[in-house]
Amino acid sequence: MTGLDIGSKTIKIVELEKEGEGFSLSASGIVGYSGITVDRMIDEKEMASLGQIIKKLHKEAGVSSGDVVISIPEPLVFTRTIKFPLLTDAEIASAVKWESEQYIPIPVAEA
Predict the structure, then answer these.
(1) Are residues 34 and 50 part of one domain?
(2) What do you get for the CA distance between the two ends of the chain, in Å?
(3) Do 84 and 68 sit in the same domain of this protein?
(4) Based on the domain organization, do 82 and 30 belong to the same domain?
(5) How many domains does the chain contain in total?
(6) 25 and 55 fall within a common domain
(7) Contact yes or no for 24/17 (Cβ under 8 A)
(8) Is 68 helix (H, G, I), strand (E, B) or coil?
(9) 2-6 and 10-19 as β-strands: parallel, antiparallel, unpaired?
(10) Which of 18, 54, 66, 91 is the Cys-Cys partner for 87 at CB 3.0 to 4.6 Å?
């Protein structure tokens, strides 16, 4: 399993392998970068550049696992607690879609 931490100024990667009842570190790496902001997240060139940095780090660290857990900076994440009355499955799907559109600043299909 691979862990990828996209921090405010560094990107870190680790790979863990199952060893008995625990895990051992099989690969790791870190690279500095200029950071990412909400404004820069919508720039396709910035995202492509970030993708290339991650790809290079992945290769240089010698990571082989395809299963990845990702952590991103808190300012780029938001949460909302929404209360719904008792609904059917179909109503829940519709209500979640509608509520999502109220809070997510990009089209839900792209989120």
Answers:
(1) yes
(2) 25
(3) no
(4) no
(5) 2
(6) yes
(7) yes
(8) strand
(9) antiparallel
(10) 91
The tens place of each residue's pLDDT in the chain, 111 residues long, gives 999 999 888 999 999 999 999 999 999 999 998 877 766 666 788 888 889 999 999 999 999 988 899 998 887 777 888 888 999 998 998 998 888 888 777 776 766
Instruction: Tell me which H or E stretch contains 71.
Output: strand 68-71
Would you put residue 62 in left (φ > 0), alpha (ψ -120 to 50) or beta? left
Residue indicated by tokens 């696992």: 65
DSSP 3-state of 90? helix
Q: What is this structure's pTM? A: 0.68
Give me the domain span that covers residue 1.
Answer: 1-72
Q: Are residues 39 and 56 in the same domain?
A: yes
The encoded tokens of residue 69 equal 């857990």
Query: 58-70 burial by CB neighbour count: b if 16+ within 10 A, else e?
Result: beebebeeeeeee
DSSP 8-39: SSEEEEEEEEEETTEEEEEEEEEEE-----HH
